[in-house]
C-alpha cells in the first residue's frame, strides 16, 4: 500500500530525515515511535506532500496500480486516496463541524475521487465519533481540544481514503479522551482502514499496531512486529517506561 525507500527530507538547509525506509501493507496499522525531534512528523509531511523530499522514493498503491507520489503536490496525493490528520488538528475554526467534514470529502464532491454516498458517509462519521454528533452545527473553533482532534480524524475519514496518516492524535488530551481516541483507532482497524500512526504514547501505539518502527535522529533505529517491539528491553527502557 505504502512504500518509503531511502527517504531524505528536511527544511531548507536543515536535514531531518537521513535515508529512512518503511512499509505499510494494505489493511494494517503501522506506527512510528521515537522521541521529540526524531523526524516522525517530518516523515508524515513528506509522505503527504507538505514538504518535498530531497531524495528517495514514496510509492502508494497495490500491484500494477502503485504510483510514485514523492514528486506530487499534496492535493494530487489526496486525490489518490491519502488522508492526513495532521499534528495540531488544524480544523477550520469559523466553519461548522458538518462543513469541516464535508470539506474532507472535497475530492469526492469534485469527482477527483469516486464519489460514493457522501451523505451516508457523513452520518457514519458522526456515529463513529459520537462527541461530534451533538455538536455537528457548532463552530469547530468552539470545540474542546479533544473534540477538535476527533473532528480532524473524522474529516480525514471523509475522503474515503486508501491510507490515513494520523500524526499525534492524543497530543494534549486528557487521559479519558486518549482512551477514546484509541478506541476509535481500534474501530477503524476493525473496518480494515490502513493507517500510519505517529504517537507520543508508544505503549498505546504498539498495542493497536501490527508493526512498528523506532526513529532516532532521522533514521530507523529498530523495527519489527509490534509485539516484538513491546517486549524489546531497549525499546521498553527508552520509550515505554512504567506505562507498559
TrEMBL record:
Keywords, sorted A to Z: Amino-acid transport, ATP-binding, Cell inner membrane, Cell membrane, Membrane, Nucleotide-binding, Transport
Pfam families assigned to the protein according to its UniProt record, in alphabetical order: ABC_tran (PF00005)
Domain ABC transporter: 2-242
GO molecular function: ATP binding; ATP hydrolysis activity; branched-chain amino acid transmembrane transporter activity
Record keyword ATP-binding present: yes
Domain of life: Bacteria
A single BP term in Gene Ontology: L-amino acid transport
Keyword Cell membrane applies: yes
Family label: Belongs to the ABC transporter superfamily.
PANTHER family from the UniProt entry: HIGH-AFFINITY BRANCHED-CHAIN AMINO ACID TRANSPORT ATP-BINDING PROTEIN LIVF (PTHR43820:SF4)
The protein, known as: Leucine/isoleucine/valine transporter subunit ATP-binding component of ABC superfamily
Species, as recorded: Paraburkholderia ribeironis
Protein's gene: livF
Amino acid at each position: 500500500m505504502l512504500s518509503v525507500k531511502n527517504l531524505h527530507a528536511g527544511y531548507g538547509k536543515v536535514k531531518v530525515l537521513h535515508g529512512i525506509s518503511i512499509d505499510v501493507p494494505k489493511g494494517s496499522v503501522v506506527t512510528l515511535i521515537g522521541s521529540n525531534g526524531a523526524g516522525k512528523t517530518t516523515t508524515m509531511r513528506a509522505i503527504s506532500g507538505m514538504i518535498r523530499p530531497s531524495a528517495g522514493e514514496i510509492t502508494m498503491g497495490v500491484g500494477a496500480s502503485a504510483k510514485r507520489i514523492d514528486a506530487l503536490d499534496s492535493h494530487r496525493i489526496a486525490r489518490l486516496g491519502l488522508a492526513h490528520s495532521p499534528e495540531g488538528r488544524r480544523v477550520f475554526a469559523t466553519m461548522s463541524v458538518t462543513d469541516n467534514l464535508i470539506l474532507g470529502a472535497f475530492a469526492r464532491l469534485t469527482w477527483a475521487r469516486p464519489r460514493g454516498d457522501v451523505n451516508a458517509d457523513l452520518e457514519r462519521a458522526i456515529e463513529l465519533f459520537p462527541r461530534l454528533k451533538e455538536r455537528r452545527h457548532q463552530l469547530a473553533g468552539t470545540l474542546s481540544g479533544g473534540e477538535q482532534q476527533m473532528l480532524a480524524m473524522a474529516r480525514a475519514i471523509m475522503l474515503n481514503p486508501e491510507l490515513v496518516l494520523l500524526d499525534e492524535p492524543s497530543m494534549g488530551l486528557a487521559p479519558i479522551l486518549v482512551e477514546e481516541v484509541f478506541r476509535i483507532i481500534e474501530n477503524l482497524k476493525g473496518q480494515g482502514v490502513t493507517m500510519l500512526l505517529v504517537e507520543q504514547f508508544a505503549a498505546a501505539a504498539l498495542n493497536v499496531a501490527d508493526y512498528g518502527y523506532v526513529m532516532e535522529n532521522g533514521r530507523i533505529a529498530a523495527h519489527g512486529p509490534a509485539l516484538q517491539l513491546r517486549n524489546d528491553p531497549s525499546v521498553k527502557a527508552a520509550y515505554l517506561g512504567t506505562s507498559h
